[in-house]
Amino acid sequence: MNQSHLNKKKIANLKALLEKKKVLKAQDDQNVQTNKKHEGEKLIEKQPKKVKPNAEESNSDFNLKKKKLNQSDTKVNTNNGGTSKLQQKMRDKLAGARFRIINEKLYTSKGKESFDLMKNDPNIFEEYHKGFSFQVKSWPSNPVDIIIKRLKPRKKIVVADLGCGDAKIATELNGNPHSVHSFDLVSNNELVTACDISKVPMKNGSVDVAVFSLALMGTNWIDFIVEANRIMKLGGELIIAEVTSRVLNSDEFVLCLKRCGFELLEMDNKNKMFVFYILKKTKECSDIGKDERIKLSKNLKPCIYKRR
């Protein structure tokens, strides 16, 4: 079975899951309407009970009791907006499955293929980032926040956020006094330019800092690094935040980046989940051929979740 057939099968599975989501959504909407009707009937039938104070009760005790009683009478259980526990569980399970399928597709495809996929169906990008945002909630820290903290105190700089997601770096730093250019597969707000990260619409040597925060996702991620080199000024700073488990050998990974024209300034692996590389552009790297790029790309393994 060739790679093309596998990719088609993954896309078909993803579309099937999206169809299941639509069915559940329709059921949810119907349940919400039914519950609203029942709630209206209950509210008409139920009236707050009138309570008279006992002679031995203080006014404050009586008012507290009255408040609790009225709250109890008027409280209506909406049951998660009309969604049953079983439906909610199924919906969460489908959302998790969709995220894992899309995530695997992004890590096992070239950037151009992922860009075309998202361009044809932007909902896939939205589904992915919903799942990604859910994952972020469980992290002890978000790499983007650490990068923002690093860049914020500096004098005016031009930043390229490559694989920016919701463009949080631009939201925090743009015009303060920095200029942040944000790029990703889909533009989900006015700060983001949609593109293939291996071909960014910026001039040569125009960027002071380039950022990849969990964004080296395609099988051709080495092309993203080469593109970052192209748009960066000589002496510019490259910041890479990656999932620790992706880096097979840190020394080999650093040598790979050196071949792409970058010298390591510092590495921070104190965080159990993520590792940070801070590098400086020391030379151009337009001389790396196709075969060598494929070889270099093996220094990062795909971040794929276990099947459930």
TrEMBL record:
<protein>
    <recommendedName>
        <fullName>Ribosomal RNA-processing protein 8</fullName>
        <ecNumber>2.1.1.-</ecNumber>
    </recommendedName>
</protein>
<comment type="function">
    <text>S-adenosyl-L-methionine-dependent methyltransferase that specifically methylates the N(1) position of adenine in helix 25.1 in 25S rRNA. Required both for ribosomal 40S and 60S subunits biogenesis. Required for efficient pre-rRNA cleavage at site A2.</text>
</comment>
<keyword id="KW-0489">Methyltransferase</keyword>
<keyword id="KW-0698">rRNA processing</keyword>
<dbReference type="InterPro" id="IPR007823">
    <property type="entry name" value="RRP8"/>
</dbReference>
<dbReference type="GO" id="GO:0016433">
    <property type="term" value="F:rRNA (adenine) methyltransferase activity"/>
</dbReference>
<keyword id="KW-0808">Transferase</keyword>
<dbReference type="GO" id="GO:0005730">
    <property type="term" value="C:nucleolus"/>
</dbReference>
<keyword id="KW-0949">S-adenosyl-L-methionine</keyword>
<dbReference type="InterPro" id="IPR042036">
    <property type="entry name" value="RRP8_N"/>
</dbReference>
<keyword id="KW-0539">Nucleus</keyword>
<feature type="region of interest" description="Disordered">
    <location>
        <begin position="27"/>
        <end position="88"/>
    </location>
</feature>
<feature type="compositionally biased region" description="Polar residues">
    <location>
        <begin position="71"/>
        <end position="87"/>
    </location>
</feature>
<dbReference type="Pfam" id="PF05148">
    <property type="entry name" value="Methyltransf_8"/>
</dbReference>
<feature type="compositionally biased region" description="Basic and acidic residues">
    <location>
        <begin position="36"/>
        <end position="48"/>
    </location>
</feature>
<comment type="similarity">
    <text>Belongs to the methyltransferase superfamily. RRP8 family.</text>
</comment>
<dbReference type="InterPro" id="IPR029063">
    <property type="entry name" value="SAM-dependent_MTases_sf"/>
</dbReference>
